[in-house]
């Protein structure tokens, strides 16, 4: 089931078209990476999903219910984590979550049990310090706990890892991966390695248009260039191996770098057997053989330019 659906959404600011015919869906219990350079239109889209901005045309649905501007009814299904969450610094995490629970009308019992469970999820269960001394990463973790307090069907995170160091980023990504069991996640980012680590599907926005979208595994497969990477044993002359490989009918091109040879072929799976047979026949020692996967970074550069 789609927890979030955008159908041909358009938005202009004055004469400037910011979002053009944007359509995508996010399936329940998946992580969707919303990718784009600065100014691509990610924040504008998230504000429309939250009903804070009005689209000019098109429809947005959250759990099947249409979002309408100014009426935040659909937000009962959404938890939102801003890029820089703000807190009352004099509270500790438990006090802060209790306050949030009380404001949103949760029962005392629900506040107690969910607070314990969520603080454990985000690794802040034993932390009794006041929030004002928290690192950025700890603030983001508390923000995730707060956003999940009302058990939303959709968690929207705006650049949750951008301001963090590698350790803090890993912690947030691990928490989001775990949170997938209890909700569906959309997170905006321009850090493609984060997307590769946890996203099931992606949408790449460029100048307000979706230039690439779908399942991460399918996208990798589609953009895979048929290149076989070989690492030749140190004692064997690489040029000799490369010259022989180049003679094979199904080999289009060869690149050499140190002991490494990249072989461009029509179809890596079909040609693989022929290459291996050649290496065996010529007694060429091979340390590594791989069909090369493109990184999302390469795919992104190809579609966004
Ligand atoms: N209220 C506004 N009035 C006029 N133009 C706006 C407004 N809000 C955003 N824009 C413009 O719309 C475009 C998209 O901005 P948006 O903030 O959605 O991009 P973004 O992908 O979130 O970028 P960033 O990563 O920098 O936040 C930009 O050109 C921006 O200058």
Total number of helices:
10
Radius of gyration: 24 Å
First-residue to last-residue Cα separation: 33 Å
Please describe the biggest sheet, giving its number of strands, its sense, and whether it closes into a barrel.
Answer: 6 strands, mixed
Integer average pLDDT? 92
Query: Can you tell me the residue ranges where pLDDT is under 50 for at least 5 consecutive residues?
Result: none
Estimate percent helicity: 25-40%
The run of helices and strands is EEEHEEEHHHEHEHEEHEHEEHEH
Strand order of the largest sheet: 6-7-8-3-9-10
Q: Which ligands does the model contain, each kind named once?
A: adenosine-5'-triphosphate
Label the structural class: alpha/beta
Q: For the record, what is the CATH homologous superfamily label of the largest domain? A: P-loop containing nucleotide triphosphate hydrolases
Give me the CATH architecture of the largest domain, please. Answer: 3-Layer(aba) Sandwich
The dominant shape is elongated
Structure description:
- The structure is a single chain.
- 35% of the residues lie in helices and 30% in strands.
- Helix 2 (93-103) crosses helix 3 (108-121).
- The protein has ten helices and 14 strands.
- It folds into two domains: 2-221, Rossmann fold (3-Layer(aba) Sandwich); 223-304, Alpha-Beta Plaits (2-Layer Sandwich), CATH 3.30.70.100.
- It is elongated.
- Bound molecules: adenosine-5'-triphosphate.
- The site of adenosine-5'-triphosphate has 10 residues, from helix 1.
């Amino acid at each position: 089931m789609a927890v979030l659906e955008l159908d041909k959404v358009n938005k202009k600011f004055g004469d400037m078209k910011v979002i053009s015919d944007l359509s995508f869906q996010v399936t329940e219990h998946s992580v969707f990476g919303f990718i784009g350079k600065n100014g691509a239109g990610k924040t504008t889209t998230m504000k429309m999903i939250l009903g804070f901005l009005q689209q000019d045309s098109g429809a947005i649905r959250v759990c099947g219910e249409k979002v309408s501007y100014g009426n935040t009814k659909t937000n009962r299904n959404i938890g939102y984590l801003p890029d820089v969450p703000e807190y009352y610094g004099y509270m500790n995490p438990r006090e802060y979550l209790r306050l949030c629970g009380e404001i949103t009308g949760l029962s005392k019992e629900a506040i107690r049990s969910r607070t314990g469970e969520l603080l454990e999820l985000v690794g802040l269960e034993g932390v009794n310090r006041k929030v004002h001394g928290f690192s950025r990463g700890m603030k983001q973790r508390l923000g995730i706990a707060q956003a999940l307090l009302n058990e939303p069907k959709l968690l929207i995170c705006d650049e949750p890892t951008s301001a963090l160091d590698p350790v803090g980023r890993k912690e947030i990504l691990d928490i989001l991966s775990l949170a997938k069991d209890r909700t569906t996640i959309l997170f905006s980012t321009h850090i493609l390695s984060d997307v590769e680590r946890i996203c099931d599907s992606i949408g790449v926005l460029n100048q307000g248009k979706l230039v690439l979208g779908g399942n991460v595994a399918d996208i990798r497969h589609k953009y895979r260039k048929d290149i076989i990477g070989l690492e030749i044993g140190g004692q064997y002359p690489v040029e000799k191996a490369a010259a022989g490989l180049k003679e094979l009918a199904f080999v289009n091109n060869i690149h050499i770098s140190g002991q490494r040879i990249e072989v461009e072929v029509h179809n890596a799976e079909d040609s693989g057997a022929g290459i291996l047979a050649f290496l065996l026949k010529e007694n060429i020692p091979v340390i590594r053989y791989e069909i090369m996967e493109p990184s999302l970074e390469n795919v992104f550069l190809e579609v966004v330019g």
